[in-house]
Amino acid sequence: MRKQMQKEEYWRRREEEERWRMEMRRYEEDMYWRRMEEEQHHWDDRRRMSDGGYIQGPPGPPGLLGVRPGLPGLQPQGPMPPRRPDSSDDRYIMTKHAAIYPSEEELQSIQKIVSITERALKLVSDIITDQEHDKEDDKEKKEPAKDRVLKGVMRVGVLAKGLLLRGDKNVNLVLLCSDKPTESLLACIVEHLPKQLTLVTPDKYEVKGSMEEAAIFLTSCIEPKMQVTITLTSPVIREEPGREGDVTSGMVKDPADVLDRQKCLDALAALRHAKWFQARANGLQSCVIIIRILRDLCQRVPTWSPFPGWAMELLVEKAINSASAPLGPGDALRRVFECISSGILLPGGPGLLDPCEKKPVDTLTAMGEQQREDITSSAQFALRLLAFRQIHKVLGMDPLPQMNPRFNVRNSRKRRHDNSDGTDSFEGEGKKDKKDFDN
Hints:
Layout: H1 2-50, H2 88-100, H3 104-135, H4 137-142, E1 150-156, H5 157-161, E2 170-177, H6 183-200, E3 205-210, E4 215-220, E5 227-233, H7 261-280, H8 287-300, H9 309-321, H10 329-341, H11 369-387, H12 391-395, H13 408-412, H14 426-438
Helix pairs in contact: 2-8, 3-6, 8-9, 9-10, 10-11
């Protein structure tokens, strides 16, 4: 009886293994023919473009056949296939993106404190302007263009670029001044701002000034506590002193209490970065989504934390914009990891030049050699996970349920990755790699 049961168990396992092999073979064949079809469509599009058929921009994404809008003469060579559904990687990325996107309450709180700050600063500007009028009436009549000390307030950083994540409670503003900002001007703003806030809103806010940071910190006293960092700067700061042929450069002296020049220059750079991002990256398909995913990765994984945000934005924009066709979220993330894996961050590589600077400036100078190697190695490991359909480990989330029950047999029999320290995630593998590297 026992031998009979063992025999039945043996044949049952043989049948399951055979069924699993058939499923794997069928799956691999489907993947092979789908890739062949995509490549064929892609090269057909490239061939038509080289023949002059596509005169209204680049070809469409691979895998799409049919007549392009505005070109009635081109007819499809065969029956039009249905639109390719979103890939599994796309589903994971969009699910993760929905999880890290700020809640409605957070967005309303940020919008509220920013708008209140902007209105209060406008009132402070009016007060300072009236005081200047009282001091120098004759001079201001001759120069009406310079009647305001505070020219305006601009949004910068993740607020201006639309890259906020769930849990972000600190946003940045830049306050433009007509002349070089001084400590006395900052103290004057800190003195007048609380009173003007009471005229704008009944809510309580805490105002602090920092001479070292050349900034004012405004914090809400109610939950959720949001903070606005207002940095003072002026376009005059960027003018190079002592230029050749400039006779008046040595005659004009800076005030004794002028604020830190580097902080003011950083604020001007943040303004240029925001304008560049709005012009180049905001309208690029999948770009903002991938940058949010990578920002979350830099917060979760210590290996990625040294990656400068501005350098990351430049890299994602260049990787996606250089593709021959619009990319979905999954393909875009894979392409970014491929760029990093190729060694673009390593010393001696091409680097990432800042497009907002007149002189060549590498945006990766703040990173050490070991940090660059660690991020490159981590990106290569992430590519391996993506190749084996384990993107959920890279994103730090649980696996999603299979949409197609056809592959359940294969997934249920897959051997789990053996980790000696009990972790089965992208973060855990990064720590293990670091231990092995240190040894």
